[in-house]
Design goal:
- By secondary structure, the chain is an alpha+beta fold.
- 23% of the residues lie in helices and 29% in strands.
- The chain has five helices and eleven strands; from the N terminus they run H-E-H-E-H-E-E-H-E-E-H-E-E-E-E-E.
- It has one domain: Oxidoreductase, molybdopterin-binding domain (Sulfite Oxidase, Chain A, domain 2).
- The protein starts with a helix and ends with a strand.
- 34% of the residues are buried.
- It holds the Pfam family Oxidored_molyb.
- It comes from Hyphobacterium lacteum.
- This is Molybdopterin-dependent oxidoreductase.
- Keywords: Signal.
């Protein structure tokens, strides 16, 4: 557990020292792996990628998404109360289904992992049926590590009647890994 907090503290300090709120020169912020058809990077290097190792994530190939690539995609904005019952905020980013389409998912379930170790299994069909976004901004500012960043799954529950009664369980913030599996 101490190792995980050390890794997170290092990531936060590197982000803070960078001074770049949009991570324009940073590395990849979300890695999509598992049963995908498009890959643009090789296997995990456990020695140089300790966060994946700390959470038991392994892969032989992946599709990576830098902030700039996500920001270049068509942006959608969702105004919604998050956490549930709090004030309404504006989140923006590409549709998650558009992000996933780049990786060509071959499975039916997404296992989304956050920086704090939270993992959530989400049916791919839910993402495909609803205008869910992979938010990279809130109120126009980049989602930073230490807040909800680097990315967050945001559901349009205030405008999509089918999602009106959903709780916050699938609202994964601090997203850095999405595994596609059966």
């Amino acid at each position: 557990m101490i190792r995980i907090f050390t890794v997170l503290a290092a990531a936060i300090s590197l982000t803070a020292c960078g001074g770049n709120p949009d991570f324009a020169e940073g590395g990849d912020i979300v890695t999509i792996h598992g049963q995908i058809g498009t890959v643009d990077r090789g296997p995990l290097n456990a020695e140089l990628e300790p966060l994946f190792r700390a959470y038991g994530i392994e892969f032989d190939a992946a599709c990576v998404m830098p902030f700039a690539s996500l920001a270049d995609m068509e942006q959608r904005t969702i105004r919604v109360a998050y956490p549930q019952g709090s004030e309404t905020r504006s989140f923006s980013g590409p549709l998650l289904r558009d992000v996933l389409s780049i990786a060509e998912p071959q499975g039916g379930t997404l296992t989304v992992t956050a920086l704090d170790g939270y993992q959530r299994d989400i049916p791919l069909s839910m993402v495909m049926e609803h205008d869910v976004i992979l938010a990279i901004r809130m109120e126009g500012d980049a989602l930073n590590i230490g807040g909800f960043g680097p990315a967050m799954i945001v559901w349009p529950r205030d405008t999509d009647e089918a999602l009106a009664d959903t709780d916050d369980s699938d609202w994964v913030w601090g997203v850095f890994s999405i595994e596609v599996r059966n």
